[in-house]
């Protein structure tokens, strides 16, 4: 993978992760790098899912693939935010 491909994946991951965070209600106390990581993973998994279901080759914007990616990112953000909030409940500062 070239440097351009890595930078593109990070930018797409940030956008997908941010869209996933917007879908999840409430405040998520997770850092931006974790949002980006979740977004990159969701983008990759959403593409694989779209390929498996045969909806990856459409004209123009692949709305179904984008929907898969955002939904997967929202699920990932909700899971990570939920795990993080459970860990911090018992902490005293």
From TrEMBL:
Annotated membrane topology: Multi-pass membrane protein
Compartments where located: Cell membrane
Regions crossing the membrane: 6-24, 31-54, 66-84
GO cellular component entries: plasma membrane
Annotated InterPro entries: Transgly_assoc (IPR007341)
Key words, A-Z: Cell membrane, Membrane, Transmembrane, Transmembrane helix
Coiled-coil regions, chain positions: none
Superkingdom of origin organism: Bacteria
Main location: membrane
Presence of keyword Transmembrane helix: yes
The keyword Transmembrane appears for this protein: yes
Family to which this protein belongs: Belongs to the UPF0410 family.
Protein name per UniProt: Transglycosylase
